[in-house]
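Re-running the complex after MR caught last week's input typo. The corrected sequence lines follow. Everything else is unchanged.
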Amino acid sequence: MESYDIELQEAIKNGNNICIAGHINPDGDAVSSALGLALCLKMIGKDVTVLLEDYSHKFYYIKGREMIYKGDYDKLEPDLFIAVDCGSKDRLGDAQSVFDRTENTINIDHHISNTEYAKYNVVYPNASSTSEVVFEIIRNFSVITDEIASALYTGIVSDTGGFKHNCTSPRTHEIASVLIGFEVPYSEIQNKILYSKSREELNIFIKALNKLKIENGISRVILTKKEILESGATYKDLDGIVSFILNIDDVDAAVFVYEKENGKTKVSMRSISTDVSGIAIKFGGGGHKLAAGADFDCTVEEAEKIIVKELEDVVSEGA
Ligand SMILES: [Mn+2]
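Corrected-run output:
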């Protein structure tokens, strides 16, 4: 660990009443890094409150759910706030107000677009996942249990797509090898996270694939709120769609554009070799080189046009 991480460890040691929060609409890495870190800090005697929006039932097996706070955020007065997997302060959602009134704040992340908004920023863009960064931090406290190992393993599998995405490094595998030395049901975890689908997810997949278009190496799907809801799906069932439509011969970039519950438009991009993070940042979003997204105030059709044009420019530059 680098020298400023000693300051970080001191900050954690000095905190007693700690809030840990992940980004809005939490994915596997946000849930795993938040709960994995929470389980660890609880073991070393801290009072821990986890602030997470509701997330996919797929991740309900991760221990520590009872630490997730359901009460009034105005009542929280932590002496330390730790944000995990959250590239910018506004992505904390409702937890942002708690962050703002807490003096000691830590930001643990791996997004290249991270805005370093906390007092202590521990951002490793080369790490596969925030769960990987959390492992590097907590191994210094030397308390890893089967539950913590299962949580962090889940986060790593989730963000690497099963050690497949190019964020996977030799270090990622080293950490995974340590983690599966604990009682970690790695086959079940991989099946649950990467392959199994609920009926609702399957129905929205069928709908999405019926609307799939492929042109100039770019695959795309757009879905309106009406289409999503009439398939019986919820917004948590949409996660796998954009990665799925990237896995098509001769496709280099995939775009999934959908209407959110609040009527705004979400654009989610994945790519094999094209850097899509720049496009996301240009429209006020963020993410990673090969996986990024942004929100738009226009209709899904308008957003699709804008993004496909941007992508065609970048894809043709790279060709
Ligand atoms: Mn992540």
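None of the earlier attempt is carried over here. The domain at 199-318 is CATH 3.10.310.30 (Diaminopimelate Epimerase; Chain A, domain 1). DSSP finds twelve helices and eleven strands in the chain.
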